[in-house]
Recover the amino acids of this structure.
């Protein structure tokens, strides 16, 4: 294990007020999003969509790393340039999702365990040869009556730690993602309690597996009430609850926390991250960054619609969302940045850049 290289890569992923773009949707998930918009669900359409993303001009101004999927890391632009090379040329660090998905956890109705440890060492070696420098593994924890159970939390924490240890052995920075889901009617207080419990379990297991925390990036949920909770809290309450929870559970050795969006709108995810950085940026031991998927991609996907004529407009929307998120890292985001721009203006703006 090259400790210095791991530390340098981890720091680079959260440097310069930048964050991560999660473009690691599985093929079935990507196809579902295409289907909702009437876009053909083919390998070529997925390739074209991803090319639109990786060729967005100046994306590296706000994005430090891009998380790819197995199909994506093997794909190329139409001119034959690999996506990994295109990303690297843009100053963005390539990463790869390595879990194989969350499956039902035996003996625990309503709970899941993430799989993919079998054969992982060999897969990591292959991904490094392709140019990956970090990896991602996602565990999902639901809140409902009687769950999460200790067994679910412990099983997922152990899997995350074993994955992280294998990554560092191979020379990849592990992105550790324990996601407490937003689905449900739970309160912010319940989310805070479960999130802290999950984080403590994860770091206990990381210690047990000998993982070097300076070479890890944490990708967690924000502390939020469930989507169906009658009481939706203010930006400041969310910011305070999230940061205080993490101060209790996340060691200072971790260089960065890159929040997932978890189904939040792009605007709300930016606003909540911004509130955290306004209030706490000067008083916390780790960088508070972002690792968003839909919260960055969704406007671009809706504009693109599978049509080459819409690429420039879609790229402008993608660049705009990433720029908003970088501003949120500095505590400089505001609703005034969210100026409604139609497709026609998008074409003009992008073409003039």
């Amino acid at each position: 294990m090259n400790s210095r290289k791991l530390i340098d890569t981890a720091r680079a992923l959260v440097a310069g007020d930048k964050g991560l773009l999660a473009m690691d949707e599985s093929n079935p998930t990507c196809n579902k999003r295409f289907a909702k918009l009437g876009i053909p669900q083919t390998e070529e359409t997925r390739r074209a969509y991803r090319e639109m993303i990786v060729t967005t001009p100046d994306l590296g101004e706000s994005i430090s790393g891009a998380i790819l999927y197995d199909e994506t890391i093997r794909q190329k632009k139409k001119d034959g340039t690999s996506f990994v090379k295109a990303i690297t040329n843009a100053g963005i660090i390539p990463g790869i999702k390595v879990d194989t998905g969350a499956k039902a956890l035996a003996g625990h109705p309503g709970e899941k365990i993430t799989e993919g440890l079998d054969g992982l060492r060999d897969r990591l070696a292959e991904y490094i040869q392709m140019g990956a420098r970090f990896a991602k593994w996602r565990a999902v924890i639901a809140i409902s009556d009687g769950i999460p159970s200790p067994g679910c939390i412990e099983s997922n924490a152990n899997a995350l730690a074993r994955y992280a240890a294998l990554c560092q052995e191979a020379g990849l920075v592990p992105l550790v993602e324990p996601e407490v889901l937003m689905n449900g009617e739970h309160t912010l207080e319940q989310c805070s309690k479960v999130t802290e419990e999950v984080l403590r379990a994860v770091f206990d297991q990381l210690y047990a597996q000998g993982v070097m925390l300076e070479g890890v990036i944490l990708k967690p949920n924000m502390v939020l009430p469930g989507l169906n909770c009658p009481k939706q809290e203010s930006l400041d309450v969310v910011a305070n609850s999230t940061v205080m929870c993490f101060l209790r559970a996340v060691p200072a050795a971790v260089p960065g926390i890159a929040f997932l969006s978890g189904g939040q709108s792009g605007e709300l995810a930016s606003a909540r991250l911004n509130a955290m950085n306004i209030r706490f940026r000067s008083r916390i031991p780790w960088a508070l960054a972002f690792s968003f998927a839909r919260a960055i991609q969704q406007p671009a996907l809706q504009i693109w619609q599978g049509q080459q004529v819409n690429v420039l407009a879609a790229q402008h929307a993608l660049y705009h969302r990433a720029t908003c998120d970088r501003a949120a890292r500095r505590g400089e985001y505001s609703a005034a940045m969210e100026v409604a721009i139609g497709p026609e203006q998008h074409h003009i703006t992008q073409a003039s850049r």
Remarks:
- Residues 340-353 have pLDDT under 50 and may be disordered.
- The chain has one domain: 3-352.
- The chain is about 45% helix and 15% strand.
